[in-house]
Design brief:
CATH topology of the largest domain: MetI-like fold
Order of helices and strands: HHHHHHHHHHHHHHHHHH
Strand content: under 5%
Number of strands: 0
Largest sheet: none
Distance between the termini: 12 Å
CATH architecture of the largest domain: Orthogonal Bundle
Radius of gyration: 26 Å
CATH class of the largest domain: Mainly Alpha
Shape: globular
Helix content: over 70%
CATH superfamily of the largest domain: MetI-like
Structural class: mainly alpha
């Protein structure tokens, strides 16, 4: 097992490097870079219009052999009549006076020491921005995942034991209806009903804590924290029960019908001992091992709209705004951190298979 872990650890930097190269290369062809953003602000122009002008100018001057930098500024400044010296200063300020490969190597060298530079548009270190947004994303992702597992696993077991009963049918109908409701739409409904929209004003609408949070007692702080999280967490989890519940149910049904269960029952073991002493660990293999993957999915990709609707300033919203503003240091820093974290969690997910069932040996499989 140690050899497998070492091989996976060695693959992490290789995979991470490949993902960064691919995304960096794709960005070279994306119009509307940070220089265009600044120029558009100076000219009072729309950024999308700026990008269109850049593309049109690039096509008309294609015979000159333009470079594949983040932005095509030469044609734009000619079309707008902006002083070339200002453009040169902007390019130097953002580092675009260097070729793309040199910028990439400098970026990756700095990323090895988690030096992500400064945001182009927020005048702050990227690492400080990420640290500031982390509590919101961790809160949403961690609590949503825990609640989904705490509800889905017992519910799936109960459905498997009562397969075909009225409880099984009605619970399936309920979770399918929840799955069919988009999370953002359910979030809007929660605001309308419970956050002062039309009916009740029971929950706060923005932020992770109240303005007087530091003045509260320990119990008061805990209550205030979960008071702010109640509606966002509910909106995030409403559609997350179906897949895990049905996976748990089907895993249990598959194990219950196996020969070793029949043998255990024939030996006179109680149904509870058979179910939780023998079936549970085998049936929970896929469910428990999938926890890290489910966590990272909710942590980084599942909460962008929820953060926007409830005015929660987390990593999802930070990454989305960085893409819209072409804030490349924030874009690539969040991509680097998300990918690194995801690769580590994937390794933990594989190791959890062995932890749940020691019979699984990855080294023996690869020999």
């Amino acid at each position: 097992m140690l050899n497998y872990i070492l091989r996976r650890l060695l693959l992490i930097p290789v995979t991470l490097f490949g993902i960064m190269v691919l995304n960096f290369a794709i960005i070279q062809f994306a119009p509307g870079g940070p220089v265009e953003q600044i120029v558009a602000q100076l000219q009072g122009a729309d950024v999308s219009a700026t990008a269109r002008i850049s593309n049109q100018g690039a096509e008309s001057g294609n015979s000159g052999g333009g470079s594949n930098n983040f932005s095509s500024t030469s044609t734009y400044r000619g079309a707008q009549g902006l002083d070339p010296e200002i453009i040169s200063q902007l390019e130097k300020q953002f580092g675009f006076d260097k070729p793309a490969y040199e910028r990439f190597w400098i970026m990756m060298k700095n990323y090895l020491t988690f030096d992500f530079g400064q945001s182009y548009f927020q005048d702050r270190d990227v690492i400080d921005l990420v640290i500031d947004k982390m509590p919101v994303s961790i809160s949403l992702g961690l609590w949503s995942t825990l609640i989904i597992y705490m509800v889905s696993v017992p519910l799936g077991v109960a459905k498997a034991v009562r397969d075909g009963s009225n409880f099984d049918v009605w619970s399936s109908a309920a979770i399918i209806v929840g799955y069919a409701i988009p999370g953002f739409l359910f979030a809007v409904m929660l605001i309308v009903v419970f956050a002062g929209g039309t009916y009740f004003d029971l929950f706060p609408l923005r932020g992770l804590t109240s303005s007087n949070f530091d003045q509260l007692s320990l119990l008061g702080k805990i209550g205030d924290y979960f008071w702010h999280l109640a509606l966002p967490i509910t909106a995030l989890t409403i559609g997350g029960f179906t897949t895990l519940t049905m996976l748990t149910k089907n895993s249990f049904l598959d194990e219950i019908n196996k020969q070793y269960v029949v043998t255990a029952r024939a030996k006179g073991l109680t149904e509870k001992r058979v179910l939780y002493g023998h079936v549970f660990r085998n049936a929970m293999l896929l469910v428990i091992a999938g926890f890290p993957t489910a966590l990272i999915g909710l942590l980084f990709t599942g909460s962008v709209l929820i953060e926007v609707i409830f005015s929660l300033d987390g990593l999802g919203l930070l990454g989305f705004e960085a893409v819209m503003k072409r804030d490349y240091p924030v874009m690539f820093a969040t991509l680097y951190l998300f990918t690194l974290f995801g690769l580590v969690l994937n390794l933990i997910s594989d190791l959890s298979y062995h932890f749940v069932d020691p019979r699984i040996n990855f080294d023996a499989r690869e020999n």
